[in-house]
């Protein structure tokens, strides 16, 4: 790996850490970068999931003020995120590599669509809360379908993860009676745990050669992405909310579309 390539991965980690903390979808920065540098898709996905864990932790720490008083809620939802993330990681390892390579463009496009519709989704959530408040409806703490939806989101995150944060914010924003900023803090914790659980499974299973998989974690990639993601996580928590969301979404969409184009060409 050349110094220029290492710098590109490090900067991608910074961008992903920042975007994950503020919006979600940082994988659409790091994953395409790794693909463009010739890293095999499954190895790129595994290394990326591990590398983004420190950034997720940094983002969660940065949002600790919004997490105050939500310990019980976070712990209850963590059970479902953990189970989903573990299952998604196992599916990535046991399914043929060709299956993942074939579905990657679809997953990236899905992530791009979710990023594009995220503002509309946020407005719908806010408008719904306002209507219920105006009607005098006492909000329930959590809708019954939130835990299984969090499980499904965790499964997706363990398998691929792009726009996992956007999905979670949609689920939490509609199903949990809480402000979006406080829910964003919950989202950061859940995403960090999903990536961490998936990463742990990748290390144990792939590195020990279990389940017959030949995929490997590239620890240099993990180090570069992780270092950048830590800086990005704190940056996102500190100043990311002041950045124009349109700019962040624009970067994600452009990078994602370039990645899809590269995949189709190659």
UniProtKB/TrEMBL annotation:
It comes from the Bacteria. It is a multi-pass membrane protein. GO terms for cellular component: plasma membrane. The chain crosses the membrane at residues 45-63, 75-96, 102-121, 158-177, 189-213, 219-239, 246-265. It is found in: Cell membrane. Belongs to the 4-toluene sulfonate uptake permease (TSUP) (TC 2.A.102) family. This is Probable membrane transporter protein. It comes from Nocardioides simplex (Arthrobacter simplex).
């Amino acid at each position: 790996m050349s110094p220029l390539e290492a710098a590109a991965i490090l900067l991608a980690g910074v961008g992903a850490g920042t975007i994950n903390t503020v919006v979600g979808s940082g994988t659409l920065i790091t994953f395409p970068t790794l693909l463009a540098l010739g890293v095999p898709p499954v190895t790129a996905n595994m290394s990326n999931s591990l590398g983004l864990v420190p950034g997720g932790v940094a983002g969660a720490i940065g949002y600790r003020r919004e997490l105050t008083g939500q310990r019980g809620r976070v712990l209850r939802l963590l059970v479902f995120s953990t189970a989903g993330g573990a299952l998604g990681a196992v599916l990535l390892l046991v399914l043929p590599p060709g299956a993942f390579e074939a579905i990657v463009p679809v997953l990236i496009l899905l992530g791009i669509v979710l990023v594009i519709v995220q503002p509309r989704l946020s407005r719908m959530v806010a408008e719904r809360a306002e209507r219920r408040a105006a009607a005098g409806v006492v909000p329930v703490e959590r809708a019954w379908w939130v835990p299984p939806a969090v499980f499904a989101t965790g499964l997706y995150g363990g398998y691929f993860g792009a726009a996992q944060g956007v999905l979670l914010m949609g689920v939490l924003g509609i199903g949990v009676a809480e402000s979006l900023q406080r829910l964003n803090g919950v989202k950061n914790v859940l995403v960090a745990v999903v990536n961490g659980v998936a990463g742990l499974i990748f290390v144990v299973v792939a590195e020990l050669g279990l389940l017959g998989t030949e995929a490997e974690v590239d620890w240099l990639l993990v180090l570069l992405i992780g270092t950048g993601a830590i800086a990005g996580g704190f940056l996102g928590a500190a100043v990311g909310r002041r950045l124009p969301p349109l700019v962040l979404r624009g970067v994600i969409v452009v990078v994602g579309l370039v990645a899809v184009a590269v995949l189709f060409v190659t």
